[in-house]
Amino acid sequence: MREFAYERATDAGQAVAAVVADPDAVFLGAGTNLVDHLKLGIIAPGKLVDVSGLPFDQVTPLPDGGVRIGSAVRNADLAAHPAIRARYPMLSAALLAGASAQLRNLATTGGNLLQRTRCPYFQDSTVPCNKREPGSGCSAIGGFDRDQAILGASDQCIATHPSDMAVAMAGLGAVVRVLGAVGEREIPLADFYRLPGDEPDRDTILDHGDLITAVDLPALEWASTSTYRKVRDRASFAFALVSVAAAVDIADGLVRDVRIAFGGVAAKPWRAFAAEARLRGRAATEENFAAAADAELADARAQRQNGFKIPLARNVLVATLRELSEVR
Question: Which end is more exposed in the chain, N or C (fewer Cβ atoms within 10 Å of the end residue's Cβ)?
């Protein structure tokens, strides 16, 4: 492991300035993903700027009825927070579906959003990977591709995003608050992540030195009727083959509004805008749920070994919407 300098930030502006001034510097929060990458030789920063002591560890109400989640809020604390459990149960469920209790006690909201793919080729520094070394090639294409993307992939990268929490936040329409060299700005989570295209090494639209300070959830009263369903190879400590976060507002048998996001199918949490549009104003029936799933998955493309993900995603979405439609 390469030697690195260490600086503990006492102010957010100081932290941003320190990273902006050094192209070889990165932020250090809880380090649950960063330390793994240091050990594996995936990254070798020259400087770590520790932001774990900054005052971003609270969940607070917003004037419009929404909720602000500080970037340093631990995953376990967020999952157990009364406001999250009552008003956004799909977020609580997604957090509890991720990792182990020990990791949830340490991992933070900001770090969870920024965790990188668990593609085995990305994590193996001895093989080509365009996400790790642009231009080197994608070993997953033509290799072991069972866990890879069926939506939004390119000929440069077919990796998937690993976060459960981010899928629920995408479904809720969360907004990421960022402090950078040009000041503060807000980024809708739908725009926060990038698809691989011809720059697979760039996971998000963040600039060097941008620091996530909080995530805002909108005031969706009907999001209390929501859930997160995760399909994986084993009951715990496994990343999603396919997951669905969904919230639905049904009245008199009609879908008045709905929010849906998929996990395990793309390089980012996949907001299912086509499925949502297909459902709004229509009867909450299994036939319409299936039609919505088909509309969303019309552009899905399988690799050699992951064709099962397409019908799996369809069935998981239909089952999730059926479950929510039966909640009264």
Answer: C
